[in-house]
Specification:
492 residues; alpha/beta; Aminopeptidase; 2 domains; six-stranded mixed sheet; 16 helices; 20% strand
């Protein structure tokens, strides 16, 4: 058993569940398996139709087409459905299936927008779904195959499977499918607050992200927060010949490299003062869940061709419960065939900061800004003027990302959390319980607007190339996910 700092030797709670509830979840999963097996070709084609619809922020018409398609899909299944909108934002697709006499309401969240695409980096067109066999199993390659249209398709297909089997949901079901999660969800809370009577539920089930790397179904009780900064440092007013002015004109690419290198040590520990201050500790139950989770480290190192990992030997799951600082990208002049012998005028880096419970994104941003200033930089919040650039030895323009949010974590021992775990176990058998996932979802906005708690039940494969080229979904994950959603849709 892995040990984590301060871990108490306690057993996870034995999640209580009635025999009838367990049987209902198992029956729902079995019905889903029978349905997806009988309709495999038809369902695959239907999933491909959804994936073929462009869904990036730069294409508002494409997002609107996705929203209308999903609205029609909900209505076709008898849901009371509508688009929730505010000016300047993609619509939230909303649907509700009411159960007469139901005492609980379950809300299913997913998002239909996807990350931007650079088609030249893909082996097949990103919006031309392509089936391939990988390690003897079929996968479909397309943008949003894993993140996050699979969850939406699984929720809809689960409804079809239950109806085909003569089964009905026992609770009121609500569906909230967002259209700008990949852009940081800047309008989500505003939309939800404007429709609070529609979006409240006893629990929100967040169907986004990958299952455990072992392939076992995962139930996650929180997500890290997210914020970002763009840093630009300056050299000459325009590019200068590196032979004529090298050793004299400061090179902003080197300056930026030195600045960023000072932010972390060789093991990935962030050196920015107070970066780890205020972290809310994990409970004994949460530490035990981490200790009981599968150890996938050796497999992941082979999979990702890693000769070493950061963290000073600590386990991945422990590190995901700490804040992080990542360089999303850097730019300065050109490389490869386009490279020139030049001292560039500026260098830019985009930073991504993940936060954990107890930290505030504004404070974390300020810690980075203060560190930059401590390295001798004059920090500005606007493009610097000639006077500012000539009046200071080092100048940095820092843009702070406003579409940011803090981390949220739901206690694992709440009764509603036990109900979710029981339903997932009934469908999938053994499950992996995690206090926090590494990715970020705006859980705080959901909990504030809907006055509820959130639990994440992802279905995608861990190696789905999420957020990058050649995104894909292992089709067996989709069929398993339909079973998981069917069990959750029949919770009492």
């Amino acid at each position: 058993m892995r040990k984590f700092p301060g871990m108490m030797a306690v057993a996870l709670l034995a999640w209580p569940v009635g025999l009838l509830q367990a049987q209902s979840g198992r029956q729902a999963a079995d019905a889903a398996a029978a349905y997806t097996t009988a309709h495999r070709a038809e369902l695959t084609a239907g999933f491909e139709r959804l994936l073929a619809m462009p869904n990036v922020a730069a294409d508002p018409a494409g997002l609107q087409a996705n929203a209308q398609y999903l609205l029609a899909a909900l209505k076709a299944r008898g849901a009371s459905a509508q688009l929730l909108t505010v000016p300047g934002a993609p619509a939230v697709v909303y649907g509700e299936l009411r159960r007469p006499g139901a005492t609980h309401t379950i809300v299913f969240y997913a998002h239909y927008d996807g990350q931007p695409v650079t088609a030249s980096e893909w082996t097949t067109p990103p919006f031309q779904p392509t089936l391939k066999t990988v390690d003897g199993e079929q996968r479909v390659f397309a943008r949003s195959a894993g993140d996050d249209k699979a969850a939406i398709f699984a929720q809809l297909t689960a409804l079809d499977a239950l109806r085909a089997a003569g089964m009905e949901p026992q609770a009121n079901l609500r569906f909230v499918w967002e259209g700008e999660e990949e852009a940081g969800s800047p309008h989500l809370e505003q939309i939800l607050m404007a429709h609070r009577d529609l979006v409240h539920g006893d629990v929100w089930l967040i169907c986004d992200g990958p299952v455990d790397q072992s392939g076992r179904q995962t139930v996650v009780f929180g997500a890290r927060g997210d914020t970002g900064l763009e840093i630009t440092v300056y050299g000459p007013q325009h590019g200068l010949h590196s032979g004529h002015y090298g050793n004299w004109a400061p090179n902003p690419a080197m300056m930026l490299a030195q600045l960023l290198a000072a932010m972390e040590d060789a093991d990935g520990h962030v050196l920015i003062p107070h970066f780890y201050d205020g972290i809310a500790p994990l409970s004994a139950l949460e530490k035990q869940a981490l200790a009981d989770a599968p150890d996938n480290e050796a497999m992941l190192r082979r999979k990702f061709w890693l000769g070493r990992t950061d963290g000073g030997g600590r386990h991945l799951l422990e590190l995901l419960n700490l804040p992080s600082l990542n360089i999303n990208g850097m730019a300065a002049a050109q490389v490869g065939a386009r490279a020139t012998n030049v001292i560039p005028a500026m260098a830019v880096a985009d930073l991504d900061l993940r936060l954990v419970v107890g930290e505030d994104w504004r404070v974390q941003q300020q810690r980075v800004v203060d560190f930059i200033a401590s390295r001798g930089y004059f920090v500005t919040d606007h493009e610097p003027t000639q006077a500012e650039r000539t009046g200071h030895a080092r100048v940095a323009w820092v843009k702070r990302e406003g579409n940011s949010y803090n981390a949220v974590r739901t206690p694992m021992d709440l009764p509603m959390a036990q109900e979710v775990i029981a339903a997932v176990k009934a469908a999938r058998g053994q499950v992996v319980l995690l206090p926090t996932m590494g990715g970020s979802v705006p859980l705080g906005a959901m909990e504030r607007a809907a006055k509820t708690r959130t639990v994440t039940v992802p279905i995608a494969n861990f190696d789905d190339n999420q957020h990058t080229a050649n995104e894909n979904l292992r089709l067996q994950n989709l069929w398993n996910g339909v079973g998981t959603m069917a069990a959750l849709e029949t919770m009492p």
